[in-house]
From TrEMBL:
Binding site for ATP: M128, A129, S130, A131, S132, V133, A134, Q135, V136, K150
Top-level division of the source organism's lineage: Bacteria
Lineage: Bacteria, Pseudomonadati, Pseudomonadota, Gammaproteobacteria, Oceanospirillales
Protein name (record): Probable protein kinase UbiB
Pathway this chain belongs to: Cofactor biosynthesis; ubiquinone biosynthesis [regulation]
Segment forming the signal sequence: none
Enzyme category, top tier: transferase
Gene Ontology cellular-component annotations: plasma membrane
Domain Protein kinase: 122-430
One Pfam family of this chain: ABC1
Active site residues per record: D285
HAMAP family: UbiB (MF_00414)
Keyword RNA-binding listed: no
Taxonomic source organism: Amphritea japonica ATCC BAA-1530
Entry similarity comment: Belongs to the protein kinase superfamily. ADCK protein kinase family.
Length: 545
């Protein structure tokens, strides 16, 4: 019933903001267009003066955090949206309607068990930014340090649970009603997203993620991560260093201070690949509302990252697989790309590698040797989806966050420096990473990492050797016992066979005698032939056994 009510609410919001007009210029199948034309609200509810972008933004805000996050991701795709839609959805990054500042102050005092006057020298009840899951207030510590205080929206967990239940229902319907549903594994994808979004509701996890990335880039000239104040951090409250930078999407301010946009875009790619391949720990919510640029050195700009509620991590196998695929992709070795997909199990092992190679080439070849502004990744993704469907490629839920982050990176690249050659920027990094991973330095590093463990076990080697030899001796004893038991079993089986043979001989002898003539003193030639045969069989059986 709760899911049904949620569906009704979604339909009501869809109708109120007349989102059906978004499909007026889309090339839909005739029966889908007919269904839209039959919607009664098209004739009862006026469109009004708001633009399509404003109506979509308001609808997403009303539907809650999951829908807002979807809008945030769309806002980075200027190539897929009109200017009106992109500008309106951009407001979802940090301009979501806030909740009461007094209520926020109450939540902070409850979490930290002290009035704000004792916790902070200054505290602004007016939020400086408001997003889908939390809002942020500026404050000043008594030691003079500027901080921001992040507070989780009240009641949001209940809303998210309702939406996740609805998503699970839709995912199961997709699996049951669509032929491609099982291959796309929608339930697993929803489960992975559920884990991610609920992790965002615990700000202690976000603080830990931020601390980890701060350590990974300690002293880095290309990325700065604010300091976390753990003494003032709880599950629903986070206090961190306040940063002063230019929002990465504010192109006018970046140009006004003569920021090197080419270098800024290239460093963004470097940060992403460093997090994915060096650290296997990457910021997975890199929409423009979470990324700033330092004002200190425009000629060599430095990124500043905030909001670490969503991070991703890859196994060593996933890292190696992705790097080898990307390098083969950059080298246009489509045969290698196809073979890696088969070896990794992404497509069935009986896939025709030649046909798969040809399909990949037809999708990927057109994008090479072009600047980013000339590459339509929407068309590329569509082509890859068709290829996946043709060769039964399964969705890999563990890479969904990585794919989402790649979309965000592409969107940022388009805004900062459309001429950026993404492939040329990434290829040297990947080649260097593979060399470090597979070369002598990697072997030495692995031995160095394992040396403490080896040294710890060395004093125990004699005892371990003795136990191993003792186990081998016990194994030999077990084998001898097994052989002896097998010999006894064989002897018993042979004894039973001999006994059966003797009994069969006696039976044959008795039957032979019974078939003989009535007078046992008659000469043998008068005995029936059958009696002679049975008597011979009986003699053989008795002599043999």
């Amino acid at each position: 019933m709760r899911r049904l009510l949620r569906i009704i609410k979604i339909a009501r919001v869809f109708a109120r903001y007349r989102l059906d007009t978004l499909f007026d210029q889309v090339n839909l199948r005739w029966y889908v267009r007919l269904l839209i034309m039959m919607m009664l609200w098209r004739y009862l509810i006026p469109v009004g003066k708001r633009s399509q972008g404003a109506r979509l933004r308001l609808a997403l805000e009303e539907l809650g955090p999951i829908f807002i996050k979807f809008g945030q991701m769309l806002s980075t795709r200027r190539d897929l949206l009109s200017d009106d839609l992109a500008l309106e959805l951009k407001k979802l990054q940090d301009q979501v309607p806030p909740f009461s500042g007094a209520y926020s102050q109450q939540l902070i005092e409850q979490a930290l068990n002290a009035p704000v006057e004792e916790l902070f020298a200054e505290f602004s009840a007016e939020p400086m930014a408001s997003a889908s899951v939390a809002q942020v207030h500026e404050a000043l510590l008594y030691n003079g340090e500027e901080v921001v205080v992040k507070v989780i929206r009240p009641g949001i967990e209940r809303t998210i649970k309702k939406d996740m239940a609805l998503l699970y229902t839709l995912a199961r319907l997709v699996e049951a009603l669509w032929a491609e549903g099982r291959r796309l594994r929608p339930v697993e994808v929803v489960a992975d997203y559920e884990t991610t979004i609920f992790d965002e509701l615990d700000l202690r996890k976000e603080a830990a993620n931020g601390s980890q990335i701060r350590r990974n880039f300690d002293g880095s000239p290309i990325l700065y991560v604010p300091e976390i104040y753990w003494d003032l951090t709880r599950q629903n409250v986070l206090v961190m260093e306040r940063i002063h930078g230019i929002p990465v999407a504010d192109i006018e301010q970046l140009n006004a201070q003569n920021t090197d946009m080419k270098k800024l875009a290239e460093q963004g790619v470097e940060i992403f690949f460093t997090q994915v391949f060096r650290d296997s720990f990457f910021h997975a919510d890199m929409h423009p509302g979470n990324i700033f640029v330092s004002r200190s050195n425009p000629a060599s700009p430095q990124y500043i990252a905030v909001d670490f509620g969503i991070v991703g991590s890859l196994t060593a196998e996933d890292q190696s697989y992705l790097a080898r695929n990307l390098l083969a992709f950059f080298q246009r070795d489509y045969r290698q790309v196809a073979q890696l997909h088969i070896d990794s199990g992404w497509v069935p092992e009986d896939t025709n590698v030649y046909a798969f190679e040809t399909a990949i080439r037809s999708v990927c070849e057109p994008i090479f040797e072009k600047p980013l502004k000339d590459i339509s990744f929407g068309l590329v993704l569509m082509g890859l989806f068709q290829t996946a469907r043709r060769f039964n490629m399964e969705v890999q839920p563990q890479l969904v966050l990585l794919q989402k982050t790649l979309l965000n990176i592409e969107g940022l690249g388009r805004q900062l420096y459309p001429e950026l050659d993404l492939w040329q920027t990434a290829q040297p990094f990947l080649e260097r990473w593979m060399k470090e991973r597979m070369g002598p330095k990697a072997v030495y590093r692995s031995m160095k990492q394992q040396a403490p463990d080896w040294l710890d076990k060395m004093p125990h080697l004699p005892q371990m050797a003795y136990e191993a030899l003792h186990q081998l001796k016990n194994l030999d004893d077990v084998r001898r016992r097994d052989m002896l038991a097998l010999s006894v079993a064989r002897q018993e089986l042979q004894r039973q066979r001999n006994q059966r043979g003797r009994w069969l001989g006696v039976v044959c002898l008795v039957v032979a005698v019974g078939l003989s003539v009535e007078d046992p003193l008659l000469i043998a030639s008068q005995l029936p032939a059958v009696s002679w045969i049975l008597g011979g069989v009986a003699t053989i059986l008795l002599l043999r056994h």
